[in-house]
């Protein structure tokens, strides 16, 4: 899941080498912390949060197959 999220995020930003994803693995939840260049945060979030919402939906769908939930936090 982390690799897919990283691939999506890197394709959206101007500085793909600055995209870092930290995975915190819990019992029932996986938390992904996405860090990127401050100038690229808006591109990750998207208009009205639609881009980050779509990324969260993808992560939740993948986590549901494992009986878990996924959270995506954009950290600047």
Account of the 3D structure:
This is RNA-binding protein KhpA. Keywords: Cell shape, Cell wall biogenesis/degradation, Chaperone, Cytoplasm, RNA-binding. Pfam families: KH_KhpA-B. GO terms for molecular function: RNA binding. A probable RNA chaperone. Forms a complex with KhpB which binds to cellular RNA and controls its expression. Plays a role in peptidoglycan (PG) homeostasis and cell length regulation. The chain is built from 3 helices and 3 strands, in the order H-E-E-H-H-E. It is globular, with a radius of gyration of 12 Å. The protein has one domain (2-75): K homology (KH) domain (GMP Synthetase, Chain A, domain 3, 2-Layer Sandwich), CATH 3.30.300.20. Helix content is 41%, strand content 26%. It has helices at 2-12, 41-45, 50-64, and strands spanning 20-25, 29-35, 69-75. Strand 1 and strand 2 form a beta hairpin. Strands 1-2-3 form a 3-stranded mixed sheet. It has 76 residues and is an alpha+beta fold.
């Amino acid at each position: 899941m982390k690799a897919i999220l990283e691939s999506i995020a890197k394709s959206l930003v101007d500085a793909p080498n600055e995209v870092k994803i930290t995975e915190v693995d819990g019992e029932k939840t996986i938390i992904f912390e996405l860090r990127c260049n401050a100038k690229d945060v808006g591109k990750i979030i998207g208009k009205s949060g639609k881009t980050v919402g779509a990324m969260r939906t993808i992560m939740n769908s993948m986590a549901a197959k494992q009986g878990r939930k996924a959270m995506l936090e954009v950290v600047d």
